[in-house]
């Protein structure tokens, strides 16, 4: 019975011994993905691009919504409706219906475009963080780099986010001028 209990205890502790042994040669770095997006020049650039697209789409929807509301106001004005010919009233109702359908299409497109733009932002920045993490890992001789969200707990000494951001910003400085030029090129 004592042998069985001792064997169970050793079996339960065996994984911890393995982790301890593996820990001796394992050098880990942790990266805060959100901080990289918020504070790196690439992240800020991509966020600015996202906000530009969002602003353009919201302006289009707002303009269409204003047209729809103006048409609705005309349709609710009995004096205005009474002054119209039956054909003009019918045209106004058709215009109202078409504006409503167009607004629904725009809103649907807005959500799709925003989702695509957000995915582009995340993939672009994730690729840049990956590249920068590899460079930092090589310089610091790290065996493993994890996203902060993958860890329940870690020592702040393992956090390499600032080094990753510096690496990303360095790359942005090298390529940044071409990014700014591309942003200023008028679209046809």
Question: Mind explaining what this structure looks like?
Answer:
- It is a single chain.
- With 188 residues, the chain is mainly α.
- It has six helices and two strands; from the N terminus they run H-E-H-H-H-H-E-H.
- The chain has one domain (28-184).
- The protein has helices at residues 2-23, 33-39, 41-76, 78-83, 86-140, 161-184, and strands spanning 28-31, 144-147.
- Strands 1-2 form a two-stranded parallel sheet.
- It is rod-shaped.
- The N and C termini lie far apart (83 Å).
Strand elements, count: 2
| Average pLDDT metric | 81
Strands side by side in the biggest sheet: 1-2
Shape: rod-shaped
Poorly predicted parts = 6-22, 184-188
Q: What is the number of helical segments per DSSP (H or I, 4+ residues)?
A: 6
Order of helices and strands: HEHHHHEH
Radius of gyration: 29 Å
* Overall SS class: mainly alpha
Number of domains: 1
Oligomer: single chain
Helix content class: over 70%
Roughly how many Å apart are the termini?
83 Å
**Beta-strand content:** under 5%
Query: Mind summarizing the main beta sheet?
Result: 2 strands, parallel
